[in-house]
């Protein structure tokens, strides 16, 4: 079996190698064996290779926050999935041809989902869904503000907010992205900068912004905090700058603005396996209806992992980089 191994942490394309390892055993009681059909290369995977991610396991280590697979065999007592089912894996180390995990670690998804879209289903879509549902009791007509609105999470936020009757104020780094975001359903778009508070207030005609989603951190967090209403929430779920979020003291103390952190695993942990499956079923329907398709720039073989990692780190590449460890998929 082929698997990606890191023998050191460092420049991703230099430290990641495709290795031949022993085949996985047959599944034991409560276990599921599945073939990995595709996995994406996410920013978190790149940070993992560098050794800058929150998880830094002993070496050799295998990256891979998400994937889609097809069940090959199940162990005794497994009832939620069966051979042939399409699944996503809630565990890591997915840059391999096969995975052996517990039954509750996999979520069965619709067999009609395109493999490329299913490979990107586990992290970004539920992140958008749960940030909109779990942090603030939003009502139709409410405004949600977000930066990095052109990201995968940002696109899902726009689409899911529109379906709930929410309005989105979308902050990006360049005006050339506005038309694309409006075509997805964005209600208003702004370019980030020092005058963001005034521009945001004008864009929403002074309406309260109760929730702001931040994936930039640093001073960008502070700018969002100035835009939300008193007692509003700024949710930090990423850091494109690599900095910690900066929260103005006046916003915290005098205006009661809350800074909340979001990590998908923590929010899913409060849900039962059946509830988690329902979350992904709801998101799959968006894809099946053709309402949103995450762009894919290129698909590589597992042997081309270095080229795939180089490509994934290029700016403005036009889509996600995928790897098909068991050969091309339909």
Strand residues, percent: 15-25%
What's the story with the biggest beta sheet? Answer: 7 strands, mixed
Total of helices: 12
Q: Taking Cα atoms only, what radius of gyration do you get, to the nearest Å? A: 20 Å
Global morphology: globular
- Reading the helices and strands in chain order gives EHEEHEEEEHHEHEHEHEHEHEHHEHE
The second-level CATH architecture of the largest domain is Alpha-Beta Complex
Give the CATH topology of the largest domain: Quinone Oxidoreductase, Chain A, domain 1
Helix and strand arrangement:
Elements: E1 2-6, H1 12-15, E2 16-20, E3 31-40, H2 43-50, E4 68-74, E5 86-89, E6 98-102, E7 106-109, H3 115-119, H4 124-134, E8 143-147, H5 152-163, E9 167-172, H6 178-184, E10 188-191, H7 196-203, E11 209-214, H8 219-227, E12 233-236, H9 249-253, E13 258-261, H10 264-268, H11 273-288, E14 296-301, H12 305-312, E15 320-324
Parallel strand pairs: 8-9, 8-11, 9-10, 11-12, 12-13, 14-15
Antiparallel strand pairs: 1-2, 3-4, 3-6, 3-15, 4-5, 5-7
Helix pairs in contact: 4-5, 7-8
């Amino acid at each position: 079996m082929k698997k990606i191994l890191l023998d050191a942490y460092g420049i991703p394309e230099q430290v990641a190698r495709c290795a031949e390892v022993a085949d996985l055993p047959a599944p034991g009681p409560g276990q599921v064996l599945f073939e990995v059909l595709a996995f994406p290369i996410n920013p978190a995977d790149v940070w993992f290779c560098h050794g800058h991610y929150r998880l830094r396991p002993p070496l050799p280590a295998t990256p891979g926050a998400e994937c889609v697979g097809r069940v090959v065999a199940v162990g005794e007592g497994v009832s939620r999935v069966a051979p042939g089912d399409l699944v996503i894996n809630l565990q890591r180390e997915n840059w391999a041809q096969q995975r052996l995990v517990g039954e509750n670690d996999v979520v069965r998804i619709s067999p009609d989902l395109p493999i490329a879209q299913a490979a990107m289903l586990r992290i970004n879509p539920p992140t958008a869904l749960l940030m909109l549902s779990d942090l603030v009791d939003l009502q139709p007509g409410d405004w949600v503000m977000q930066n990095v609105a052109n990201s995968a999470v940002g696109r899902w936020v726009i689409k899911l907010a529109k379906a709930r009757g929410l309005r989105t104020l979308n902050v990006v780094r360049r005006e050339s992205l506005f038309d694309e975001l409006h075509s997805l359903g964005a209600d208003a778009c702004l370019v980030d900068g020092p005058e963001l508070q005034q521009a945001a207030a004008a864009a929403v005609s002074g309406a309260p912004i109760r929730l702001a989603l931040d994936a930039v951190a640093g001073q960008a967090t502070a700018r969002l905090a100035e835009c939300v209403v008193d007692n509003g929430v700024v949710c930090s779920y990423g850091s494109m700058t690599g900095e910690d979020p900066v929260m103005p003291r006046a916003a915290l103390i005098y205006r009661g603005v809350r800074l909340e952190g979001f990590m998908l695993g923590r929010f899913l942990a409060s849900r039962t396996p059946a509830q988690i499956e329902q979350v992904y079923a709801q998101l799959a329907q968006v894809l099946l209806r053709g309402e949103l398709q995450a762009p894919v720039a290129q698909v590589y073989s597992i042997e081309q992992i270095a080229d795939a990692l180089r490509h994934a780190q290029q700016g403005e590449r036009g889509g996600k980089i995928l790897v098909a460890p068991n050969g091309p998929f339909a």
